[in-house]
Amino acid sequence: MVDLSFGTPRKLPKPESLSGRVGVLDIAFAGVGGRSGSFESVTLPFIQGLDGRLRVWVDHHDHDEHPRYAGDPRFVLATKAQHGACPEMITPELVERIGKLDTIVCHVDFDGLASAAKWLRGGTEPYAGADDDARAVDTRLGTPGPIALRMDRALRGRPNDHALMGVIVRHLASGLEDAALWEPIDRAGEELAPIERETRRAAQSYRRLPPDVAFVDVSAGFGRIDKTLLLLLGQERERVSVVLDVNNVSVAAPFDSGLNFLELFGLEGGMPTRVSLPRKRLGDVLARLRVDPSEIPEGVR
Fold first, then answer.
1. Exposed end of the chain (fewer CB within 10 Å): N or C?
2. Can you tell me the mean pLDDT for 60-67?
C-alpha cells in the first residue's frame, strides 16, 4: 500500500512526516507571498527537506521557477495551457521510469485525487474518460461526466476532509469496484446544496464595473459560500469576476479568455486566469483591470 498525503501550494506536509520515496502530484509551486506562503518559504524547504527521497513532482501550473528544475528528471512540469489537468501527464511510461513510491502527496481537488489514483493504477485511467473529466473540472470548460461531478460536489461540500479524499482516491484506484464507497461520497455532496444556495444569494450582489468587471464584496452578511462557483457566476455577467472577502481579493476569468493575471499583477506562479491577492491590494487590482476610478468602491481607491 502507498501512503496518501494531501496538500496545497502553500500548505505542504512536513517532509519528516512522509515515509520513504515520495511523489508529488498536481501541487503547484507556491507563488508570491512575502515571508510566508512563497516558493522560498514553502516549496523550496519542502524539496530540500525531502532531498533524495523526492522521486517525482508532476504539475501543470505556470511558475517562474520551473526552469530551475529543467535538468532534473524528477520534475515533470508543464503550463496550464499545455495540460489543462494533471492526470493526462501521468503515463505508464512515467510510472515505470520512476518506480516504486511509498508516499503520494497530491492536491485536494478532483484533479489531484484522480492523479494519485491514476498513479496507483500504473498510469491507466480509473474509468474511461477520467482524464477528460479532470480537465473539464479543472478548467471549467465543458461538462464533466457523472462520476467526476459526484466526486467534485463531495470535495466542494467538505474541502478539508482528508478522510473523504482518501476514500475517493481508493475508489478511483480500484476502478470503482466497491459501490458502497459511493455512500460517504454522496453524503458529502449533499452538504453542498445549502452552500450553493448561499453562493447564489451572494451573487445577486454583484456590481458591474466598466469596462468588463463584475465585483462583489462578501466580507460580511453571508454564510459559507463556494468561491469557485461565485467567481463563475460573476463571469456570466462580465468577462472578469472579482470577489472580496475578509482576507483576500480573488480574480478570475474563463480559462480560454487569453488573460494572464500572473503577468498583470506581477505574480510568480499559479493559474493565469485565477489568482488570489491580499485584501489590501483591491484598489491596485481594480486599477490594473482598467476599472473607471469613479466606479471603484469608496475607501479602496
1. N
2. 94
| Amino acid (one-letter) located at 43 | T
CA pair distance 171, 291, nearest whole angstrom: 47
Least confident of 67-71, 74-78, 270-274: 270-274
Cell numbers given for 165: 479524499
> pTM (2 decimals)?
0.90
Classified as helix, coil or strand, 227 is: helix
Q: At 44, is the secondary structure helix, strand, or coil? A: helix
Collect contacts of 193-200 with beta carbons under 8 A, ≥24 apart. 195/156, 195/157, 195/224, 195/225, 195/226, 196/226, 196/229, 198/222, 198/223, 198/224, 198/225, 199/225, 199/226, 199/229, 199/230, 199/233, 200/233
Contact present, 233 and 217 (Cβ < 8 Å): no
Instruction: State the cell numbers at 265.
Output: 499583477
Q: Are strands 75-77 and 207-209 parallel, antiparallel or unpaired?
A: unpaired
Q: Where are the beta strands (DSSP E) in the chain?
A: 3-7, 22-25, 54-59, 62-63, 75-77, 103-107, 207-209, 213-217, 240-244, 248-252, 269-270, 274-278
Structure-block grid coordinates of residue 258: 487569453
CB-based contacts of 79, cutoff 8 Å, min separation 6: 60, 61, 62
28 DSSP assignment: P
CATH architecture, domain 195-295? Roll (3.10)
Percent of the chain with pLDDT over 70: 97
Residues 6+ positions from 138 with CB-CB distance below 8 Å: 84, 85, 86, 109, 110, 111
The per-residue pLDDT for 294 is 82
- For the record, the C-alpha cell of 207 comes out as 456590481
Sequence spans of domains, the chain? 3-190, 195-295
Distance CA 109, CA 197 (A): 21
pLDDT averaged over every residue in the chain:
94
Residue 106 has pLDDT above 60, yes or no: yes
